[in-house]
């Protein structure tokens, strides 16, 4: 008989750290530098995808010719703009306490982000998470990022857990679509700017305000350790 033991697979931006709007403005700066006019609200709707897919979709919306060199420039411009943001990235309310609770309860957890380590490091430092101790899967470690399931499958593999017993926690529809494709349950957080109904329609079986709210209701989603 297979015994289910809950594990948590966390997205990073907008889920554990308050960084979504910093990414939006970094992408805006990168796009402006390339002479690509795009409204900020359109950029926000794509945050959570892989950088490459995000850039391709944005460029497709503008009707401009795609060019690999230009996409690579955009990625580097975005990363450079993000790491020099004047507003410090901070953990979302309850994020550190939630991770501490899981550690103390002996519940396995990992982080899976569509960002590359060059931008993820800023967020991990803010959380006090050491990738040498905690499994952290970044975009450069998998073939495809969200909404494909690769990041979460790789995170579950690193933890040595069954993806079917894992809870994917994310703030965007891309996280929850990836969770469905990975055969994991998805939990949505409102802290990235998506609405409750959007997250539920994308597959979130529970939606909470932020990590603090999830911790407050942890018994609703977590099996006994």
Automatic annotation (TrEMBL):
Biological-process GO terms, alphabetical: DNA repair
Protein name per the record: HAD hydrolase, family IA, variant 3
Keywords on this record?
Answer: Hydrolase
Q: What molecular function does GO assign, one term?
A: phosphoglycolate phosphatase activity
**SUPFAM superfamilies in the record:** HAD-like
User: What organism is listed for this UniProt entry?
Assistant: Solilutibacter silvestris
Judging by the UniProt lineage, the source's domain of life is Bacteria
Q: Which Gene Ontology cellular component annotation is one that this UniProt entry carries?
A: cytosol
